[in-house]
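Job type: complex structure
Entries:
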Amino acid sequence: MVALTVNGTRHEIEAEPDTPLLYVLRDECHLHGAKYGCGLGQCGACTVIVGGEAVLSCVTPLLLLENKEVTTVEGLGTIEQPGPMQQAFIEEQAAQCGYCIPGMMMRAQALLGRNPAATDGEIRAHMEPNLCRCGTHMRIMAAIRRAGELMQTSGRAASADAPQRAG
Amino acid sequence: MRRDSPLLLSRRSVLFGTGALVLSFSGRGLAQTVTAPGDETQNFQAVPEPAPDLPGSLKTNPDLDSWIRIAPDGRVTVFTGKAELGQGIRTALLQVAAEELEAPFEALSLVGPDTSASPNEGFTAGSHSVQDSGTAIRNAAAQVRDILIGEAARRWTLPVENLRAEAGAVIAPDGQRATYGELVSAELIEVRAQPNSRLKDPNSFREMGRPRPRIDIPRKVTGGEAYVQDMRPEGMVHGRIVRPPSPGARLVSVDTAGVEAMPGVLKVVRDGSFLGLVAQKEWQAIKAMWALSAAARWEERQTLPDATNLPAVLMAMPREDAEVVREGTPAPGSVKTIEARFTRPYQLHASIGPSCAIGVLENGTTTVWTHSQGVYPLRQAIAEMLRVPPEEVRCVHQEGSGCYGHNAADDVAADAALLAQALPRRPVRVQWMREQEHAWEPFSPGMVTEVRAGLDANGNVTDWTYGVWSNTHNSRPGGAPALLAAQHLATPFPPKPAKVQITKEGNGDRNSNPLYAFPSRDVTWHFLPDMPLRVSALRGLGAYMNVVSIECFMDELAAAADADPVEYRLRHLQDPRARDVVNLAARRFGWRPKMSLPKHHGVGFAFARYKNLAAYCAVAMEVEVEPSSGRVRMVRASTAVDAGEVVNPDGIANQVQGGILQSASWTLYEAVTFDPTRVTSVDWSTYPILRFDALPDTIDVEIIPRPGEAFLGAGECSQGPGGAALANAIMAATGQRIRDLPLTRERIRAAVGEG
């Protein structure tokens, strides 16, 4: 039994300790945001935030997560009340198939949570691990920039929706 | 998935579900089968075409209520046989329907491909969705609108000309108003479409031609159920397949006892060399798959060609030469002949999300939720594999990760159908592993092209000869043999031999005939029937390689003629719409002959009309090449597109930008690798693709408005010109022409003498 907090809700997970966080989120918590892409930590489709850092959930076993705080794309807002990162991706229409997008959003959220005024160069370098096959990169970049603006104007970077670096 | 969909939904219940219209579909599907040669969507699946005089897919599905139904409360359901693949088609098709029907966009919903609900439109492929389905829906909507106006006129005994339709209602001059829901009845639109529709004047459009935010994006960015990968029907369990280690391998033996005893394992299934299992939870299934893989003994054979010398291998294969076009006579005065050979390795679709499907066997029907591009052909193939009548299989489209052609979607649907047979009434979800997707999806074939042109004293082309060596680019389900699992069964369905066929839209020869006005041309597809690696359709089929070859060679000719590449293209282009996109892209980019650029920068230009009959696209691009590393970074690109009448300009821009970046990835990085026995490019480290560091600062896309013109498919128009403009820019930056794709750092370093 491992206890962890996902999007502010505490869960006690009964699963084999080597179970990657990805399957805990999908099969135990019934969250769809984090996607299986490679299971090898090579593509970023499964990216979530743990303790303020972007983490590849497909290679992070449950046993390392005792009492950790996990945020998935579901934790950034809802379809009725999207958070700034979600709002920005909708405004910029930053998706084709969209499969990689939640992972992109979570990696970007980890950066903007620390620095909503990140430069283009910083955003590119930070996003380097995540792959998109449809070629939506230009719009993803635009959406991340827009999310930074929204966070700065609304001051939401420091809110509970934008997790801070742990410790 | 739609949350209100019951697990099994018969066509009849769909109809009852809409409330207003209870229709009988008996008697349909009996029409004479007419194949439409040249249409990629129908190359391998003859769709009955009972009404060849009707526009778009009304040819194959001529009944209005196959496309549009209206409930008493005014809600409109639009049906399409075309699948959402990330191209935004659901939104665009609803825009078309809302426009011609004169109904609010919000009142419309769309039912996608489903063998028990939607029209059969073959495959979603070849940039045909708006052309075929959009045209059908547009005409059907216009005719339904006019039928409802006619009904109001009848009820009110007023002349039709005095009535107008607006916002889902018919309105009389005195303000009298009847909603569509009040006017509609089953008999009214249970009619066959007419050849001519009273289509709206583009000047009065309020929906088409405007950027409409896509209806699917909010759910995708908030963690909603958006993909087949996200579905979780009641009682769902998880399947995994143990694939052979190599294409020629055979399963000799496997001890399943240990795996069967593992936690959560419900079933191990073996049929010949098809080996799979079902477990309660996904992680249990994956661990059991690894254990089962370790317990299996395979006999492997060397079946793969020499990868170190692929172009020579391809050109030495047995071949059938098919003439694509031979016309004109060489112009006199040729003073110079120039020739070149271009090569491309096998490449992948490489979807970010490995293919996935859910199958369930219940009440004698196998239902499969699938991201296949063709639910009807897939149903036929799965039924053949299961040896049951097609009526006992239902395929329902649910979105998956972008597929870009015939990836493993159909294969995993077959896997799910097979595992479902072993565990009746339990929905079995199967997702391929990354290494399975990379190794087993049908590849885009390796290709070689050779081109030769004569030039006169002014540098103009006097004659043009072109040959392309390639397998077929289409092994889509035309029955069970196209399904990977079916090839591995104890009683296998061996792959069908491919046949060469020259069609209007092309296959390996797609876009091999340049749009330029040369005095003579001789174009041949050297068709290679042997397929040592499994191949099928990747976005654009042969168009990408043919356009890259032709457009790189046009730059070589321009150089030989000491001409500017844009001017040189224009002197050989007569089609005014082609000239317009070339001029516009050049103007937006600020193209000038012999532009002055920073050191190690170069600019490139390219143009093509996709399939010579769909959208026109021209691309100008600037790159920076670092000679010491061979690293290429795109700096900026400008694109002009003519897609005919535009439904959603933002959707086209998204597709065109995406196509440029996707083809940049093909052009710079991608090659399937293999040894004599096994495929060795099995993950993202062995098959690298484009990352954020290679992105340009800008890719601007300008769409030329063509109100009143026919829709021209745009989803695949930019790959050829995008890849070619990039290759030409690299040549301009380095002074070296590399004719073997991909243009890797190693090749660039070697070419500039830094290797």
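Summary: The two ends of chain B are 52 Å apart (CA to CA). Chain B has a mean pLDDT of 93.
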